[in-house]
Design goal:
With 94 residues, the chain is α+β, with helices and mostly antiparallel strands. 37% of the residues lie in helices and 18% in strands. Strands 2-1-3-4 form a four-stranded mixed beta sheet, sandwiched between helices.
Length: 94
Amino acid sequence: MSQDSGQSQPDIVVYTSAFCGYCSGAKSLLGKKGVEFTEIRIDKEAGMREEMEARAQRDSVPQIFIGDRHIGGFDDLVDLDMDDELDPLLGLST
């Protein structure tokens, strides 16, 4: 898939931690989509767990944000992909 020249990719942030299979799954899916994202390791970066919890109102990882929209976790990301709603959010042409 290629990016539509009329759309730019939104900022994508994925909060993760070590030894998290769902985090790996989310990063893999986004990687397969060919999009760049920022990974924030809440177990390595001071204050990031608190930041994630404040933004997401959840304490589990991964927590995924596309632009200002809170997607949720890995299952939520997969559901969007299965419903053909993820690519448009990522700024990808269909």
